[in-house]
Specification:
Blueprint (H helix, E strand, L loop, with lengths): L1 E6 L5 H15 L6 E6 L10 H9 L14 H6 L2 E4 L2 H12 L3 E3 H6 L15 H29 L1
Parallel strand pairs: 1-2, 1-3, 3-4
Helix pairs in contact: 1-6, 2-6
């Protein structure tokens, strides 16, 4: 399964989400889950933000090689599951062909339609980045549990 995480600039939330998901998928033995990230308004090739780099390193994840990419119809088309950080990201992914495969991360994780966005730490202090990282780790943990359970039900 190809999972795509989407935020605005692809320098904070979605790169952290991608790294967290990659680690959690490996820990849960979900070898068929691949992850990527993109931004609706990304500056192509931009590195992860300093805050995202530092907080990820604190948590054993390295974003040094990350480079931002713009959300495109090709990326949307290649993804089987698109998890976005806010409703406007969902709208953009749907416009690019993601209808039916695009969900707010928090809604997919909790199987609700609460519509709660993930806090954007851009420009914030490290504590804001830490809070966002922790929120992403919690939500993505639930996503990976759901994917593992769905695999078990099919298998």
């Amino acid at each position: 399964m190809r999972v795509l995480f989407v935020c605005t600039g692809n320098t904070c939330r979605s790169p952290m989400a991608e790294a967290i998901a990659r680690r959690l998928a490996a820990e849960r033995g979900l070898e068929d889950v691949s992850v990527a990230s993109a931004g609706t308004s990304a500056w192509e090739g931009a590195p992860a933000s300093d805050g995202a780099l530092l907080v990820s390193l604190e948590n054993g994840l390295d974003l040094n090689s990350h480079r931002a990419q713009v959300l495109t119809p090709a990326l949307v088309g290649a993804a089987e599951l698109i998890l976005v950080m806010s409703p406007h990201h969902r709208d953009r992914a749907n416009l690019l062909g993601g209808e039916g495969r695009t969900h707010l991360l928090t809604d997919f994780a909790t199987r609700t339609d609460a519509g709660r966005p993930v806090q954007d730490p851009f420009g914030g202090e490290l504590d804001v980045y830490r809070a966002t990282f922790n929120e992403l780790a919690r939500e993505i943990g639930q996503v990976m549990d759901r994917l593992a359970a769905e695999r078990g039900a099919r298998g």
